[in-house]
Amino acid sequence: MTTTTPRNAHASGAAPSASTAADQHDPTAGSSPTSDDGGPSLLRQPRAVWAVAFAAVVAFMGIGLVDPILPAIASDLDATHAQVMLLFTSYMAVTGVAMLVTGWVSSRIGAKKTLLAGLAIIVVFAALAGASDSIGAIVGLRAGWGLGNALFIATALATIVGAASGGVASAIILYEAALGVGIATGPLLGGLLGSVSWRGPFFGTAVLMAIAFVAITVLLPRSAPPERRTSLADPFRALRFPALRALAVTAFFYNMGFFALLAYTPLVLDMSAGSLGLIFFGWGVCLAVTSVLVAPCLHRRFGRIGVILAMFVGLGVVLAVMALTTTAPAALIVCVILAGAFLGVVNTLLTEAVMVAAPVERAVASAAYSFVRFFGGALAPFLAGFLAEVSVGLPFWMGAAAVVVAFVVLLTQRRTLGHADRDDEPEIAEAEALTVAEAS
């Protein structure tokens, strides 16, 4: 593949056009469940779609599942804050690298086998993490979990698009719904299971993913051979385009702010798993609602890049306030939940911009972008653990400073990104669904 491939040419693992995907995946080709008025029904979907959607919910739960049990892990395993932060660093670093190879894998073995491989990896590594007795082992096992998550999430959207009735729009809504439910309920489930034992969320994830594995094995038809094999070099070639490169660098620093808040705040609050679960449930609800409902409205009214810049200002202020109020739990709780609203808008609009940033396949653009930004998410918890030993508020200041850098990069590159404000409905719809990767 060359970097001038038209954006509407899809690799396996990206969301193909509705007709192409349906030819490859749809177990009910030729039939489309309808509502009472004769139109397509969003809720009347093939069983294969619900199987993948359920698995996607569980996969997205993994984003915030660990948050409520961080203090318990630190206490029971006699781990330092720096060691506990590595649970996020290993997960995010491996996920970022794995994003480079998911297209290569799925274009060779097919979507169904890629989904099952990802689920199997998560089941094994989540269960082993729950059975581990050392922080080092859990950190390593979280890395394996990240590989499985990357393989599954990168392929799930294409599978839902291919099998869903009602066209691409219905598939996107279902995927977004799975994303929102997973992000919001992950911390809540983590808090509930973590109230019994910090091992509970790990074992719970393994059980749910095992159920999803069986469901997809039984209900999802074998995918047709991919039309084209993706090269491992494709994502690196995509970063030659200035617009995509600018967005990737912006996302790198933005993700540092994101994960400084997500990974470090539970250790500062030092509350029970149940309490932390409720707090981050509120955070997840705000993130999901603003990502799906608020971000498109703001974009239509004010333009994509301008809204992202405004959200960076808001997020930077929130992180600065958190740095100044580390001894006031009530203030930290309010800031965490409020930050979810800013994060949701940025996640959606940044991902939308990526989809129109370079004339390459969307799967390739997403892989290149995700590779860079996930390393921001990996670096922030690593630095936060060491900075916390100097000052409790310093990790939040680091997050705020990173968001300022993201603001400056995006502002100085705004002319390069002028075309990213245009509306392109098919690409924007898919971009909103691919927001997983931001929260994820």
TrEMBL record:
The chain crosses the membrane at residues 48-70, 82-103, 115-139, 145-165, 172-196, 202-221, 242-264, 276-298, 305-324, 330-350, 371-388, 394-412. Keywords: Membrane, Transmembrane, Transmembrane helix. It comes from the Bacteria. Residues 9-22, 30-40 have a biased composition (Low complexity). It comes from Beutenbergia cavernae (strain ATCC BAA-8 / DSM 12333 / CCUG 43141 / JCM 11478 / NBRC 16432 / NCIMB 13614 / HKI 0122). This is Major facilitator superfamily MFS_1. It is a multi-pass membrane protein. One of its GO terms (molecular function) is transmembrane transporter activity. Residues 48-417 form the Major facilitator superfamily (MFS) profile domain. Residues 1-40 are annotated as: Disordered. It is found in: Cell membrane. PROSITE patterns: MFS. The keyword Transmembrane applies. Its main location: membrane. One of its GO terms (cellular component) is plasma membrane. InterPro entries: MFS, MFS_dom, MFS_trans_sf, Tet-R_TetA/multi-R_MdtG-like, YfmO-like. Pfam families: MFS_1.
